Amino acid sequence: MRILLVEDDKVLSKTLSLALQQSGYVVDPVNDGTSADVALTHDVYDLVLLDLGLPGLDGIEVLKRLRARKYHVPVLIMTARDSLDDRVGGLDNGADDYLTKPFDLPELEARIRALIRRKHGVSDTLIEFGPLRYDTAGKQAIVGEQVLDLSARETSLLEILLLRAGRVVSKEHLATHLYGWGEEVGDNAIEVGVHRLRKKLEPIGINIRTIRGLGYLLDKPDAS
Amino acid sequence: MPAKPYSLRRKLLTWLLLPLLILLSLRAGYTYFYANQLSNRVYDRMLFTLTIALSQQISYDSANRRIQLTDAAVQLLLSDELDSLYFSVRDAQGRVIAGERTMPPLPTELNRNELPFFDGRIGMSDIRIAYFPLTFDHEAYLLEVAETLNKRKLLSREVQIGSLIPQALIIILATIIIWFGIGKSLSPLERLNKAISERSHLDLSPVHEDEISAEVQPLIHSINDLMARLSDALEVQNRFIADAAHQLRTPLAGLKTQIELALRLNDATKTSETIHSLLASTNRMTRLVNQLLALARNEPNAEGALNKQPLDLAHLASSITMEWVPHALERNIDLGFEAPKQRIPIQADAARIKDLLDNLIDNAVRYSPQHGRITVSVIDETRPQLIVTDNGPGIPPELRERVFERFYSLLGNGADGSGLGLAIVREIARMHGANAHIDTGHGGIGTRVCISF
Question: Measuring CA to CA, which residue among B414, B312, B415, B322 is closest to residue B363?
Answer without folding.
Answer: B415
